[in-house]
Structure formats: C-alpha cells, structure tokens
Amino acid sequence: MTTTVFKGGRIIDQMGERSGDVVVDDDTGAISQVGPDLSADRVIDVAGCVVAPGFVDLHVHLRQPGGEASETIESGSRAAARGGFTAVVAMPNTDPCMDSAAVINEVLAHGRTALCDVKPSGAISIGRDGETLAPMAELAGLGVRMFTDDGTGVQDDLFMRRALEYAGSLKSDDGVPFVLAQHCEVSALSEGGVMHEGEWSSRLGLGGQPSEAEELMVMRDIALSRLTGVRVHFQHLSTAGSVAMVRAAKAGGLPVTAEATPHHFSLTDACCADYDANYKVHPPLRTASDVAAIKVGLADGTIDAIATDHAPHTPDSKERPFDQAPPGMLGLETALAVALDELDMPLTDVLAALSWQPAAIAGLAHRHGRPVEDGNPANLTVIDLDHSWEVSGVSMASRSSNTPFEGRQLRGRVRHTVLDGELVVEDGEATR
Ligand code: DOR
For the whole prediction, is pTM greater than 0.85? Predict the structure, then answer.
C-alpha cells in the first residue's frame, strides 16, 4: 500500500476553502484522510498551492482513430493531465466517427491506459451527417452519456426534435441522465466563411461567418428543449446574442447548460490580421463585445463550464493559407492559466467552471469534481497560482503545437495531478 500526503495546501472545492493535508491511497484510488498534521509513506509539500478537485473538459478532440498524426488518446490525455484535467469528453469527429459500438469500444480501450479518464461522446447521427439517428441506446449501454455531432451542428429541425425525443426516452442503468450537446452553426449561413463576418473579414478579404449562424441554432434548440422537455447543452458559445438567449432560457426554467472556451473569452477576430491560421477556429473568434459578454456569462452563471475545444492539427496543415487551413486550436495545457488571467471571477467560481459543474453536465459527478473529502475518489489537481511561464507549443505534451497563445506570459500552473490516487503529473511533468 502506498499513501501520499499533500501537505500544507489550501483546499478549495464546492464546500469552500480550508487548509489541511490530504492523504491519497494509491491502492484504493481514494482520498483516505483530510486534516491537520497528517503523515503517509510519501510526503509532497504543497504549501502555498491550491488543492482542488480535478478538472473535467467537456470538449476535446483526441483524433483517434484516424487522425493520429495530430494527436492520440495517449498524447491528448497527457496534455489533459498536465492541464489539471482528470476527465475529458472526447468528441466524435474521428475517422471513422464515434457512431458505432466498435469505435466507442476502441476509444474506451485506449482510454484505459490514458493519463486521465477518457469518456467518448457518441454521434447523434450516423456519419455525423444529420440524417439517420445513431444507435444511441447501444452506445448508452457502453457508458456514453453525451451525444453530439460536434464539428457540425444538426441542421434539420425535425431531425433534432426526434434526436431529443429519443435521448429523452433513454434510461441509463446508473441513473445518470443523457445530454445532447450541440455545435450551433447553421451551415447555410457559415458556408465559405473562415472567420467572423465583420470589419476584420472585410479588411482581410476573407469570407465571414456571421454571428447569426450560431444564434439561429441556439434559438431553435432552446425552442426544441422547451417543446420536448429534454436537456440541451450548448457547446463553445461565442456571441453576445447566444449568451443572452441562454440566460433567458435558464431564467425561464428550461433544462439548458452551456460552455465557453478560453479562446472565446480572451481573443478577438483582430488576431487574424496577419493571416496566421493558428487563430482560425470554429466557431470563429468574435469581437471585443462578444468576448466581454462571454466573460459576463461565465461570471453570472449563464455559462456553466469552461471547455477547451482542444483541436490539434499538424504543423503542415496549419501552415497552409488561412482560408485552406483546418480550424481549431490547442487548449488543454493553457486553459487554467488563461482563465485565471482573463476572468474577473472568484477563484472558487473559476474552479467550479473547470471542475464540478462540467462533471455534473457530463454525468461524471460520481467520480470527478467531488469535494476533497475522505472516501471520495482521489482525482485532484494541485495548482501553483504564482508560477509564471511562457507558452510554447513545441514544449506541450500534445502531438501538435497549434496554440494561439504562443509566446504569451501566463501566471498559474498545474503542479501535480492525481488520477485515482496515482500521481500522473508531478512538478508539471507527466510521470508516465
Ligand atoms: O475549430 C474547430 N475545430 N471547430 C470544430 O468544431 C471542430 C474542431 C476540429 O475537430 O478540429
């Protein structure tokens, strides 16, 4: 039996803040003791650091199967662990996509040796084509709790209604509810657009995607959630209008939740001025007023979760001209520090948006984002709030290096990550 004590940290979770030592047991994978002056086989000094429940990312692209040149489940999980995440939800736009038991089983099998829990999402439609429902009940039987066609939104209104009704009729054996998550983008409006449609797209001569491409689908899905009574989770919200509609829907008692990415609350379309494809992403970087609205949405609880939309792409592909490069940016290793840098929110609220709130949305609250108390699974992150560091894509654990924060000086870094009692990141480096 190996026990480890994290000594002298500030514990912050949904119960509030307190000081105390935390003992984790490698054998049981649980927290065995929390309190003053504890001892264990191994002592790790975390004085001055925050000890918090591990983070949960509702939105990562791990690229396996099919896109292993840019990321694998192993490399993506290593990046996640270095970012403080103990669980991630893998998006289905792999090749083949996650619309069958075979592919879900393959992802689960690779996930067993990963450095964080890897929860595959299931596609809503076969081939993510928005035409034929995927075998959701079968995928649910394998443990899938989130369904999404991410990468594209479900275009057809009636198909989305049927998908919600089907998801609403599913029963999970563990009582954890299912959620349909939507990438809101009306493709008839976004087609041909490679950045936000506005002043900058005109100046740069690039095709734009108007805010309305996102907002019309947010509006429709709020209406369909009202019609069916089924939960909808809005992925990577990027516009002020979307935030306002979700705020009103929540005030009206609808079962909707939402996430926002660090890049959407820190970067604007002006970043595209030099045609650097590292700033190309879907939904696109918007205007300063959209960024401000996302921040307000996070601060007032309209947006429940910070999700990275970690989207690795090879250097070759990102070196193509802006309009031909694939959209997407890395996020796992910079999420915490960008959030701490950009958000004017109490630390507990930032941690809530990174940990226990997304854990609840993903149906993972029995294992992740739990209070730092004895008996709970030892899925933890230890943060050094004062650590200053410079972002470097090539130094990341990801197989790709397409960070939009290259060269940026950030403050706050994950020092240790504990997965089921195992120290998977020690002093900022993965241990295996
Ligand atoms: O920028 C994006 N990249 N948005 C998406 O919806 C998909 C993602 C990817 O898979 O690269």
Answer: yes
Bridge-based pairing of strands 256-260 and 232-234 is: parallel
Distance 329 CA to ligand 1 centre (A): 8
What average pLDDT does the chain have?
98
Give the tens place of pLDDT for each residue, 23-57.
999 999 999 999 999 999 999 999 999 999 999 99
Instruction: Show which residues are catalytic.
Output: 309
Instruction: Give the separation between CA 89 and CA 72, rounded to whole angstroms.
Output: 14
Q: How far is the CA of 401 from the centre of ligand 1 (A)?
A: 15
| CATH code, 35 | 2.30.40.10
214 and 103 part of one domain: yes
Q: What is the pLDDT of residues 224-268, one digit of tens each?
A: 999 999 999 999 999 999 999 999 999 999 999 999 999 999 999
Domain hosting residue 209, numbered range? 53-361
> Domain end: 361, 386, 406, which one?
361
**Ligand 1 atom nearest to 93, measured from its CA:** 10
Torsion angle of C-alpha atoms 355, 253, 92, 219, degrees rounded to 10: -130
How far, in Å, from the CA of 230 to the mean position of ligand 1? Answer: 26
| The token pair that represents 395 in the structure block | 């130094």
